Task: structure prediction
Amino acid sequence: MDTILYMSFNQDGSCFCLGTQIGFIVYNISPFKKLCQRELNEEIKIAEILRKTNIFALVGNANAYIKESQMPNDKLIIWDESQKKKISELKLDSEILKAKIKLDKIIASTKDNYLYVIEMVRLKIINIFKIYEYSQGLFAINSGDNIFAIAFPYRYTGYVKIKKYNSKINIPNINAHDTNISFITISSEGNLLATSSEYGTIIRIFSTHDGQLIQELRRGAKRARIHYISFDLNNKFLACSSNSGTIHIFSIYSSIKFLKEQGIIEDKLDTSNKKNIKGEIIEQPKNQKSFIGSIINVLKIGISYFESEWSFAQFRIPKNEGDNAIVNFSSTENSINVLTKTGNLYKASFDPSLGGECQKINEINLLQQNLENI
Result:
């Protein structure tokens, strides 16, 4: 395999797609298996797969002024792997920085600070939004199919705009951070928004229904670049990766409790018969709070540092691999997958009630020659 230029999980985290210097590759996670590999003799800077189908959204890495390239960086290409060819394409006004694919839509952001919502079948532009100029094309969409929610940095430093299609609710713009947003993500059903700033110390969770801050999570005391944040599909946990090399896992029980109290979601969680690795009944997972934080909470002194919640479980990878690592929750309960641009795929498990250090289950080097099945 050549150098990895791009990495992405599909909507349910069951497989992942890599963009390389000559094409793209798709791997199934469990069981681990290469699903397809396509050589296009083009650098692929973006490769997104629709669910687990043969449909891909691709963007090449060639300068738009190079006429010899069939995949310039300002052209969005829909690829059908069953036909082994592109089936449609759309040229935008400047370089495409990020793209995501849903069942009937494609969303793409460009270097000139625009966000496009595009109808999948006809590649017709439905909406165009102006993004905050220093956001580097950042945006997020939910992975579920029942609704379509999109969020992006907007107008001012640290502000986020949420747009929900098929909803009449006018959601106020969210003042999420005092500095530039570094990452945003939306839960699968579109109810929660998580954001981080360029400082990388705090992750904030907001309701997408009214923009209210629900929960504040602390990654650490020192600055770091948060590269990825993901919710699990069961609405129990959130994970983040950063250049510190530590993957942090947080309980979002407080956020889900809030949504239930507001009548936004139904109470479907039932842990009454579930046990941890020690055979003990699982309690609702709780993030860590410092002793000082507990005292201040009692005294009702509003100091954010001590009120925020620390991760209850952690997984450590080599620090040099933390840069641009992405993480999601595995289909196997209480486990995560971590993918790095150095070509390593880690799988680790965590105890949902005891937390602490995660246990590494497997480590696979994707750059090994002739790797097919493991």
Remarks:
- The chain has four helices and 30 strands.
- The CA atoms of residues 49 and 56 lie 5 Å apart.
- The two ends are 16 Å apart (CA to CA).
- Residues 253-261 form the longest helix (9 residues).
